[in-house]
Amino acid sequence: MSQVSVTINGRQFRMACEDGQEGHLMNLARDLDTRIEGLRAKFGEIGDTRLTVMAALTIADALAETAQRIKRLEDELAVLQDARNEAVSLDQAAHATIAAALNAAAERIEGITKKLNQPIGGGSVALG
């Protein structure tokens, strides 16, 4: 565990975090401090606790909006995956139909070739 010292709302806090997460924790603290300073600039001195709660609510609101956006994107992704699966199925069916048509044409050509190669009138001369 690492220890990091962060400043939020003019106060120093010593925080513990996983090794390697120090920079991330410092960025989070900086973001919170910026939000509190922004609220202080907008509303004036309304008390540290109230500013902290308001900052926490703005973060919770952003988190809720992000969760809703992720849900919408997951729903869109599911629709697109279904459409892709449908397209793949149609493509496979088209390939099967084309292959069957080509096989049928090849069989007809073979049949015609055999008929053309049969001797005419009992003679031994074959056409083709």
How would you concisely characterize the structure shown here?
This protein is mostly helical and 128 residues long. It contains two helices and two strands; from the N terminus they run E-E-H-H. It has one domain.
The average pLDDT is: 93
Order of SSEs: EEHH
Largest sheet: 2 strands, antiparallel
- Count of β-strands: 2
Integer count of domains: 1
Rounded Rg = 37 Å
- Into which percent range does the helicity of residues fall? over 70%
Q: How much β-strand is present in the residues?
A: 5-15%
SS content category:
mainly alpha
Separate helix tally: 2
Q: Whole-Å distance between the termini?
A: 87 Å
Molecular structure report:
This protein is mainly α. The protein has one domain. The chain is built from two helices and two strands, in the order E-E-H-H. Strands 1-2 form a two-stranded antiparallel sheet. Helix 1 (22-43) packs across helix 2. It is rod-shaped and about 115 Å long. The model has no long low-confidence stretch (mean pLDDT 93).
Task: Please give a handful of descriptors for the protein shown.
two-stranded antiparallel sheet; mainly alpha
